[in-house]
What we know:
- By secondary structure, this protein is mainly alpha-helical.
- The chain has one domain (about 5-165).
- It has seven helices and no strands.
- It is globular and about 55 Å long.
Amino acid sequence: MRDHAAANPDQYHGSRDLSEELEALSEGLSSPAQRLEHGLHGPVAFLVIPLFAFCNTSLLIDFSLLSQLTDPLALGIVGGLLLGKPVGIVLLSYVAVKCGWASLPLGVSWRQLVGVGVLAGIGFTMSIFVTLLAFEGQSVRQNEAKIAILVSSLTAGILGYALLRKNSTPTD
């Protein structure tokens, strides 16, 4: 199946140039507070919030817990985050496109969609929350689940990044 960028690459690059020009113009019109907010977005989104989420897990880093990654609970979590989420996202997207309910966005390939599906496995914060509710009062099970979530999320982030980096088209 052809993606939209391959069908009309000039339109894709033209709209991208226009988007970049509009962004540059809007930066010149923004207030100092807006520029500060924009400048802090990256460090907050990629450092502060993940660090905050990690600190709220109450996970004691005990490397002996890594041996528990072969237990059924841990394997289920790893399978759900690293396989279940990407398969579900890609499969539902494929069905939606085939049925005509949706189309891939301009410039997006199926390989990139797989990369995004893998990134969805980062579900760190909500997974920890569900773990705390599901295994209330069972600290051993909570810690086993937390280490599986941590390893899966880290793996999903690295693998998703690598897939998207490999399958993205360079700009200029």
